[in-house]
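Open question from group meeting: does this chain pack into something compact, or does most of it stay loose? Before anyone orders reagents, we agreed to write out a predicted structure and look at it together. Recording both the input and the output here so the notebook holds the full record.
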Amino acid sequence: MGRRGPLPKQPGRAVGHRQRPQVLQLVPKMEAEVPRAPEGLLASTRKAWRAFWESPKAQLVTPDARPALERLFRMRDDLERENDLFRQARLVTGSVGQIRMNPLAAHIQALEASVLRLEVEFGLTPLAASRLGLMFGEASRSLEELNRRFREQAIEDQEPVDPYAALLEPGGDQGREDRPKRRPSEPRA
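Structure tokens returned:
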């Protein structure tokens, strides 16, 4: 039994209404052209832009999603700049001379939430990528290895055939006519 329940059955033996999600396997392109980064970005943000476009995830960006991706990198850039300013002055003097938290703190928090939301949209976190059904090179190889081992183990164990599995399949109850019918008041044998 797996950590979150039983392991899934082999595709030919699975019974039920739920379809398994499709997994899109992305492989890096050799000749991918990196689009020019938006103007005015910091060097670190331009480096992250280039790294994104050189990754397999860039294959998923359609032309209509490009503005949202540019917005994500602009917000990341703003976040880095504001974090630098906030680190210089975490506490400031208020309007009547009191010491208070720098108002940038609230803006940074809102900006982080917006950045995270867009990162999830583009599958830039591991959990978001898995929810989108993305699988990448090294991970796919290890998953294929796990599946191969699982199949080998299942063949060695030779699970007994479930006698009720045929009844759950369409047309599986055709052999029931030859059994004697029981009245509702009679006890089961």
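Observations to bring back to the group:
The mean pLDDT is 79.
Residues 37 and 49 are 7 Å apart (CA to CA).
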